[in-house]
Specification:
267 residues, alpha+beta, 6-stranded antiparallel sheet, 7 helices, 13 strands
């Protein structure tokens, strides 16, 4: 029986995929940067947040370029062997492009850049699956918006409109004359335990930030000498002396994500 055409779906807008175009642009941009910068840094991110990585980009914009794209494409641009590398020893650095990581092309020397990242650790709200860094309990009595995290004189009572949401999240609250109250303390989380989605929602509602964004420089390449230095390991020369085990392996689940950056994968 022929297929009916009556229920045909007509899309009013059409978008073209830019997968190959983005890949080629990322590859070309990295190749273009290699001869322009004396250092290439390979970094990974802890507790990834796009807005913080964009802030890093903005603060380094005067003398650096940041790329956070597909690991395979960035490794290909650096060369996957001595015969394909655009500059001596860049293929040694590409061997360490494992998991979600990025590249920084910079005029800043290693001590300067490492010093910058050592002080850049903004806090953010934890996501499900994160290990809690502290215990948090809602106190009994009248609930305030920060639940005792700040003095009551500097806080305000929790809005009554939020009370149904709290009950859905398992908090045994009650409304009393338009105020949200707890008859007994309610433990939201314990220190060192894995947080669930309901717990992270409650922590965010009460302004408790447990995640800390951080950038870890794992290795860098020096154009003048052609050497690759692995953080916590031995320096490597163009012969590839060194071990990938010296760089911590990361989960590759986000390897193909551009992390909300520009179309060319540049952060």
């Amino acid at each position: 029986m022929p297929k009916s055409k009556r229920a045909k779906v007509v899309h009013l807008t059409k978008t073209q995929k830019k997968g190959k175009e983005l890949t080629l642009r990322l590859y070309a941009n990295i190749r273009e940067c290699i001869p322009l910068y004396p250092y290439i840094y390979l970094f990974s991110v802890e507790n990834m947040r796009n807005h913080y990585l964009k802030r890093v980009r903005a603060e380094l914009a005067s003398d650096s370029r940041v790329f956070f794209g597909k690991s395979r494409v960035m490794a290909k641009a650096l060369g996957d062997s001595p015969s394909t590398e655009p500059h001596p020893s860049t293929s040694v650095l590409s061997a360490h492009l494992t998991g979600p990581c990025g590249l920084i092309f910079s005029h800043r020397d290693p001590p300067s850049l490492l010093s910058y990242f050592s002080t850049f650790h903004p806090r953010s709200y934890a996501r499900a699956g994160t290990i809690s860094t502290r215990a948090f309990t809602l106190p009994s009595g009248l609930l305030y918006s920060r639940a005792g995290e700040v003095p009551a004189s500097e806080d305000v009572p929790l809005a009554h409109s939020i009370e149904p949401t709290l009950r859905k999240l398992g908090v045994p609250t009650r409304l009393l004359n338009g105020t949200v109250e707890l008859d007994e303390p309610f433990e939201v989380c314990k220190e060192g335990k894995v947080l669930g989605s309901g717990q992270t929602t409650l922590l965010k509602m009460f302004g408790v930030a447990m995640a800390e964004f951080g950038v870890e420089v794992r290795a860098w390449w020096v154009r003048e000498t052609g050497e690759v230095e692995v953080v916590g390991g031995q320096g490597m020369n163009g012969n590839g002396v060194g071990s990938n085990e010296e760089v911590a392996e990361m989960d590759a689940s986000g390897e193909d994500e551009f992390g909300g950056f520009d179309d060319n994968g540049e952060g």
